[in-house]
Amino acid sequence: MSDDISKTHSVIADNLDSIRNKIAAAERAYKTQTGLDRPVTLVAVSKRQPDERIDAALAVGQNVFGENRVQEAQGRWMPRRDRHADLTLHLIGPLQTNKAADAVALFDVIEVVDRPKLAKALGDEMIRQNRKLECYIQVNTGKEVQKSGIAPETADDFIAYCREEARLNITGLMCIPPVDEEVAMHFALLQTIAKRNDLSNLSMGMSDDFEEAIAFGATAVRIGSAVFGARNS
Questions:
Q1: Does the predicted TM-score (pTM) go above 0.85?
Q2: Residues with Cβ within 8 Å of residue 50, at least 6 apart in sequence
């Protein structure tokens, strides 16, 4: 192993250790406040990261990763599936309906269900491929025009559609709060929608705010730069 690769492995191992310790502390604080145990999954966001950083994370036991684009994820993870049987891959970026078949074949959790046409395409593909993936509804809590996700006021009806008509296994919600607003109100809103619809999983919180997300009941946090450093352009 070259000195550069050895250094990369050491840095990422230290980063993961630090993040895991912070997650554990936030879990304990949540339990103290609520009396509830809610284990939190660290989803390492691997999009546009070089192979040596991905392999460094795998080498120290990180086995849950998030990807934004199906084609990029195929190139990265299909060769690694045989070597890492315990991999869990989350799709966390916008999905076109014409990529539904590829997404169902590759991913284990799809966090970005955000419109009826996509929900139907995913449901049909899961039947066709005999795969029943966990799916999250993406909620655009800030109603930002540039972001995917359903509006909060339509969430209940859309969740019902996904369950009853599209036949999806809806287990949670996901959000990406606006960068210029207090994240707490967005995490609280997602938590409220989840409780109302009897959903136990909440994917919210990233590198800068995952501890606050856990305080609002997050069960998955999506962390990229704090694990891997800056992405390649």
A1: yes
A2: 232
Nearest in space to 65 (alpha carbons), one of 38, 42, 94: 42
- Contact (Cβ atoms closer than 8 angstroms) between residue 112 and residue 174: yes
**Helix or strand or coil: residue 181?**
coil
Sign of the CA dihedral running 98, 102, 104, 108? negative
What string of pLDDT tens digits covers the 233 residues of the chain?
566 678 888 999 999 999 999 999 999 999 999 999 999 999 999 998 999 999 999 999 999 999 999 999 999 999 998 899 899 999 999 999 999 999 999 999 999 999 999 999 999 999 999 999 999 999 999 999 999 999 999 999 999 999 999 999 999 999 999 999 999 999 999 999 999 999 999 999 999 999 999 999 999 999 999 999 876 65
Distance of CA 39 to the CA centre of its chain: 15
DSSP 132-163: --EEEEEB-TT--TTS-SB-GGGHHHHHHHHH
Query: What is the C-alpha to C-alpha distance for residues 79 and 138, in angstroms, rounded to an integer?
Result: 29
Residue type, 123: G
Q: Are 122 and 103 in contact (CB under 8 A)?
A: yes
CA-to-CA distance for 198 and 39, rounded, in angstroms?
A: 18
Contact 224/206 with Cβ under 8 angstroms?
yes
The tally of CA atoms less than 13 A away on the side-chain side of residue 110 is: 33
Q: What are phi and psi of 146, to 5 degrees?
A: -85, -5
The secondary element (H helix, E strand) that includes residue 77 is: helix 70-81
